[in-house]
């Protein structure tokens, strides 16, 4: 796997963790999951725009 793709994947996961961490311990599992998914989608969208599309 190329280093750029690895870095992008790490950044996607990092943003998901940061978004869901804000709800940790509050008993809001579904909301934490939704926040993580939304953060991942936003970050992946940034990667796609920068690359033209995933996998190139």
Can you walk me through this structure?
The chain has 56 residues and is mostly helical. The protein has one domain. Helices cover 75% and strands 0% of the residues. The chain has helices at residues 3-21, 29-51. Helix 1 (3-21) runs antiparallel to helix 2 (29-51). The N and C termini lie close together (12 Å).
Order of helices and strands: HH
Poorly predicted runs: none
How far apart lie the N and C ends? 12 Å
Output the radius of gyration: 13 Å
Q: What overall form do the CA principal axes indicate?
A: elongated
* Structure class: mainly alpha
Determine the fraction of residues in helical runs and give it as a percent range. over 70%
Number of strand segments: 0
Major sheet size, sense and barrel closure = none
Strand content: under 5%
Rounded mean pLDDT is 88
